[in-house]
Each structure stands twice: as structure tokens, then as C-alpha cells.
């Protein structure tokens, strides 16, 4: 908690990578993220909320149960982990991270990755200490990966075409309608209707016209 009060997000990240638990509470029943938010260290809150241990992803690189093959090839774990832990959730940023890595920017690779993200999302919602924020993030990235797949399969300009579509503004005011529709679609497709976070998002967005 003392280190969080300093607002040093690099130290916060190092502590998390060293195995610091994010759900442990202090004497007044608050987690590290809650204490960081209380003292105004929002950069630290962002680091904590976006942290996903690499070993949790590596679990999917080994065959489980009756599976003969792992759900995620080892070579994809690093690039996927980089995207999972990014704090910049702009859809263009995520597509650019896919585009810049030849291992990811392939149909079969993206199919494997989005299916693993869906599994992580499910686990976040069904575990004892439900993590709706992380579940929504995994689902959101999965939806963007699936949109990448559509453009890779159907468009000659591939991911460049998706980036252009996301950035293009409508004539009258420059508003990026395609980008807005993609984000709304990802929220609408979140499979856990009972989630408090989903209900909050729907209440905020539903009354607002594009």
C-alpha cells in the first residue's frame, strides 16, 4: 500500500510480476486497487486492473484433460499476452498490435486466440471471486479479433481496411460510426447478462443515439 501511495506504476507492475496478490484486503477491508483509487493513484489502478499473469495464459499452451493438442500454440502466447495486458483499449490500437506481429495476423492464429480469450472470459465469470472487468476486457478483445478475421478472409485490403473503417468519420461531423458500432456490438454480445458491469454499460449507452 505504501508503494501504491507513491504512484509509481513501474514498481506496481514489478510487484505484480513478482507474485503480489491483487485480491488481498488490508485491515479496513480494501484491496490494493481500491486503496490506490482512494488516494488518487489512478495509473496504479489501471496497472492492477489490466494485469494478467503470463502463467495463466501459459496454461492453455499445454494439452488439458483428453486434449491431444494445446488450445494455444506456444509461439502465440507472448504476442497474445502483450495485447491482453495493454492499457490502451482503443480498437485501432489492438488491430495495430495484431498487424505488427506476423504470427498473430493469420486466420488460424486469430481463431485459436479468440477462443482462448472466450475461455478466460468464462473462467473470470465463474470463479469464486468473479472478475467482471477482466471478463469484459477478454470478451472485447475477442470481438476485435473476430472482426480482424472477417477482414482477413473477405477483404483484399485486409487489416488495413479494418483500420481505415475504424478511423473513417461520417461526412457531417467526422464521428467514427463504424468504430462506435463495433464497440456497441461487443457489449451487446457479452454472454453474461446478469453481470453488473454489463448492466451499467447498457444503461449508459442505450439512451445515446449514434
TrEMBL record:
Organism domain of life: Eukaryota
Record InterPro entries: Ankyrin-MYND_dom_contain_2, Ankyrin_rpt-contain_sf
Gene3D superfamilies: Ankyrin repeat-containing domain (1.25.40.20)
PANTHER family from the UniProt entry: ANKYRIN REPEAT AND MYND DOMAIN-CONTAINING PROTEIN 2
Protein name listed in UniProt: ANKY2 protein
Source species of the chain: Columbina picui (Picui ground-dove)
Lineage: Eukaryota, Metazoa, Chordata, Craniata, Vertebrata
